[in-house]
Each structure stands twice: as C-alpha cells, then as structure tokens.
Amino acid sequence: MISGYLKQGQVEESLGLVHRLLATVFDVMSEKNVVPNVSTFASVIGACSMLATFEIGQQVQCQLMKTPFYADIKLGSALIDMYAKCGRVVDARRVFDHMLQKNVFSWTSMIDGYGKNGFPDEALELFGKMQKEYCIVPNYVTFLSALSACAHSGLVDKGLKIFHSMESEYLVKPGMEHYACMVDLLGRAGRLNQAWEFVMRMPERPNSDVWAALLSSCRLHGNIDMAKLAANELFKLNATGRPGAYVALSNTLAAAGKWESVTELREIMKERGISKDTGCSWVGTDGVF
C-alpha cells in the first residue's frame, strides 16, 4: 500500500499510512505472529525518504535492529539514502560505516548523499576510495553522483577525467544525464563556449535536459545570445512541458535590460497557455505536516 501510494504521487495518503503503520503494524504483527519482512521495511524507509521524515525513519531503524534483517545490504543502502535526503549526513555516514557488507549501491548512496548536501570533497574522496581500496566498480548512477559533486565544487578537470574514464576504463556508456551534468559543470565554471562545443560534439541528439543545463548556465553568466540558442532548441523538443525554461530565458533577458524581448516572450507564454506551477514545501512539527 505504501509503495502504491508513493508511485502514484499521493504523498499525503502515504504519510498518513506511515504514521498509522508505525502506531499499529508492529504491534498487530506481533499479536498475529506475522513478522515484517525486508519488503515491509524497504517500503517504510522509502516513504520516510520521500517525505524527509527522519524521526520516523529513526523509529523504523530501531525496529529493524531487533530483526535478523539489520545487516541486509538493501536496507542499509535505503537507510543511507533516507538520512541523506533528510539532510542528516552524519547519520547516513554512521549507518554506512557500521554496515557489515557494502556493495556498489551502498557506496553510491553515500557518495550521492555527500554531493547533494554540499560536501563534494567528501563525495569525491569516497568515490576514489571505493575503487582503490575496495576494488568496487562504479556504475551508471555512481558516475552521475561523482560528476554532480564535481559540478558543485567547480572541479572541471576532475569532472572531465571521470567522464572520459566511463567508456575508456569501465565500458559504461554515458547517458543524457551524464552529458547534462557535464554541461552544467562547464557552464557553472563559466566555460560556456566549451560547454557549447561539448553539446555540439555529442554522439546523440541532445535532449531537453542538456539544453536546460546550458540555458541555466547562460542565465547565471548573462550570456543572452547563447541563452536564446539553447532556449530555441529546448522549445523545439518540448514547447510546453518546460515552463521553467521560459522563465529562465525571461530572467536572462530582464537582467540585460531587454524588456521588449521579455514582453514578447511573456506573450508567447500566454498564447501557448504556459504558466509555471507555484512551488510548495512540507513543514512538519510534532508529527503534523
């Protein structure tokens, strides 16, 4: 039920079910001699991860420690991911360090957690350690996490080295996510021309994520001409599904004082019925969201 709610994006229903589950399920299972299995724990931890409810996650971990599944690699990796998504990097690392066995998914979860929480140096240190000391081969997602860490720390040369090693050393074919990450890496560092050349040399046609990454970098550095080119390519691929791209281009034009162009773009958005969804956040206290 929890997994079903999450897959359908029904966050409130999932949250309510998690609360009810924690209040009753283990007692009921105990009374009926029904033992929660790995899938039960994985679903609950996954819900806590998506809802960023680390307090509930801690309770689940306490229950898990009382079962034979406490050493399960899958559940250990899920706990690392859950704590990292809740911003509890220290807790995630504690789980990681106490795992009796680790696989590539465990390492990737920790590397990704470090990178997404503003610790790129720790992420890259772990990326090197897993290969040199433990001979664990990084997978598709591991490379993505490492490249993202490079992008957030401005390590362009390191990122390029990791990207080129994917196929040459590990026979892992880069996907669009990796190309988009490299464009973001080069763009953040102000190497917009190099980012453009990188896109032009791609063996496959760039998708909307690649162009969106370039557009974002153009906005950051105020390159209007390249922003228009990236936006036009993006709109060709997805004219209505990326409202954020219209806003990014509009903001780039506005920052340069191109108000006539801003007005024209806003009119196009109206004609196409494009509007950016209002953002929202979950705030929780004492179990109430």
From TrEMBL:
Record key words, sorted: Repeat
PPR repeat segments: 72-102, 103-137
GO CC entries: cytoplasm
Pfam families the record matches: E_motif, PPR, PPR_3
SUPFAM superfamilies, per database record: TPR-like
Keyword Repeat: yes
Family: Belongs to the PPR family. PCMP-E subfamily.
Gene3D superfamilies reported for this sequence: Tetratricopeptide repeat domain
Organism: Cajanus cajan
GO MF annotation, one: RNA binding
Biological processes, Gene Ontology terms: RNA modification
Domain of life: Eukaryota
TM stretches of this protein: none
UniProt-recorded name of the protein: Pentatricopeptide repeat-containing protein
